[in-house]
Amino acid sequence: MSIQIRVGLNSGEVVVRSIGGDLHMEYTAVGHTTHVAARMEQIAAPGTILISPATLRLVEGYVTVKSLGSRPIRGLETPLEVHEIIGGSAVRSRFHAAASRGLSRFIGRDIEIEQLLQALERAHRGQGQVVALVGQPGVGKSRLVWELIGSRRTNAALKLEAGCVPYGTATPWLPAVELVKEHIGIKKGDDSATIRDKLTARLRALDGDQPPMASALLSLLDIAPNDPAWAALGSFERRQQTIDAVKRLP
């Protein structure tokens, strides 16, 4: 017998109350928000996820959905537009979700754009550059980077993107891992054999001895290199070879 699950989602404010006695206490959320979520779950078919308009506004662009039309919801005066989640999208941030729907005309920031382009020119001359954009949320940091990447002066540049998240602080090398995955073309769901093949194909563009570099990158991607020489290295030597391998990627 197969197990089938149906899910209903709604977003909004809830009231939390305590239930229980002297020996055991639990908390439950009540109110309009939980009521609509329960109704979404009740009308969902087995194996599907239904969301309310309130949830759709929060996740739009992050997931692909199919409209099921307006459905009457018991306890509500008017029907709700119900959507079924079909799958996830490749969008990584709220800004990218907004960009997929279209952005307004970019005005100003000429000085900042010029500073970024100057750093890019120095990088082209072989001088490594790091630029930090600092500002309050909503001032346009992501849009500034978006405009730089879309500039005709960056057409010949290799553009890779990685993100840092608060829950990723315990993962060693997380930004470097994301950059390597994007550079090599590793997709979510690729197995170890596929990752090895993609890495080997990328390293063929390099001259010289490849095994140390391949072992470092495989280890970075959490795949056992099957290399006795790599296994014999200490933590400092592995760290240095990993840094060198990332720097040498073509």
Key descriptive features of the protein:
single chain, 41% helix, 250 residues, two-stranded antiparallel sheet, 3 domains, 10 helices, alpha+beta
Nearest-angstrom radius of gyration?
A: 25 Å
Q: List segments where confidence is low: pLDDT < 50 over at least 5 consecutive residues.
A: none
The second-level CATH architecture of the largest domain is 2-Layer Sandwich
The H-and-E topology, N to C, reads as: EEEHEHEEHHHHHHHH
Q: What's the number of domains?
A: 3
Number of helices: 10
Distance between the termini: 51 Å
What percentage of residues falls in helices of 4 or more residues? 40-55%
Query: Can you give the mean pLDDT?
Result: 85
Strand pairing plus helix content: what structural class? alpha+beta
What is the strand arrangement across the widest sheet? Answer: 1-4-6-5
Quick one: how many beta strands? 6
So, the CATH homologous superfamily of the largest domain?
Answer: Nucleotide cyclase, GGDEF domain
Shape: extended
**Any idea of the CATH topology of the largest domain?**
Alpha-Beta Plaits
Largest sheet: 4 strands, mixed
Strand portion, in percent?
Answer: 5-15%
CATH class of the largest domain: Alpha Beta
